[in-house]
Protein 1
Amino acid sequence: MPMKEINDDSAQRCQQAFIRLLADTPLASVRMAEVATAAGVSRPTLYRHFHSKEQLFRAAVDSMFEQFYDQAEPYLTQYEDSLALALNFLASSVAFQHRPLIETLLRHGDDQLFVSQMRKYFARMLGTLIRHQPERRFRQIDLDLITAMLAGACFYALREWVANGMQQTPHEMARVLAHVFNGQLLALV
């Protein structure tokens, strides 16, 4: 097996072990040595992939957001009025598919860390939208404000949805969020 595959496999095992530990232990109490043991790797191997538990947390959130972004990108490049509904449906569906991970991250994670990762992905989505409107100029301060608003609102909506047992379907959540984010955010700047 090539070294890259071994490294990718061990990194994946470390990330999965971290999520399993986080299910029962607050982030502040998780120890890197426990992660290495649970993943069946040495501590140097763990540290080669992840320098801290915060980096492991980011990786867990990133993998979920990457799945969402991969599905959302075609909608971002073909902007339509239904953009908000489509993107919110994809986001709700990905969250629903990753329910145990979402519940674990919200219960034992770091809210600020989670929101900062959400901001990163909203900035990426806005960047894609902006690239398809080259004739317009956008101020970074306005984009930062929109990104912060999206991340905060979506984080707390997600937290509420999970706290209520995710009783609404992803489509119902998408309809609610689409009314909040009607696809016209770039009109603000």
Protein 2
Amino acid sequence: MKQSTILCVLPLITSCLLLAGCKSPPAGTKFVGQAIDVRFTAIDGRQVDVSQMRGKVVLVDFWASWCPPCLKEVPVIKAAYEKLHGRGFEVVGISLDDDKKDLLALVAKEKIDWPQFYDPKGAEHRLAKQFGIEEIPVMWLLDKSGKLRDLDATENLVEKLEKLLAEP
């Protein structure tokens, strides 16, 4: 009986181990330590080029107005922006919304001041494809030289920002 139990459980354990090891790395892993190229015309007409933000710490926020975890981050980002914008913190929003009206409505309702990129292709738009974004929210931090330093700014955002802002 023991041998048959082992034979039944062994494939289950093996499957679990294989599945656990097959998780793909976070989006952007191959870009860590590199300057990233993000340029667009924002929904309000501003021209945005992250390379022109050198000397500042930049949060690149891939999100959408229909995404509950993304919406949970909005007040966190706003608080950090209000606290640290004067010290050189910028935010760039990359919306994966399908409908521009939804994005515009949320930006107005929440009084979001930072530039937003919208592409009518939704999750298939050029920046999502360029950086391998398959799920959201994804929040990256770029250091003052424009290099991608953090792939998960959803955790301890203010602490991470203050550390990057303190760097020369």
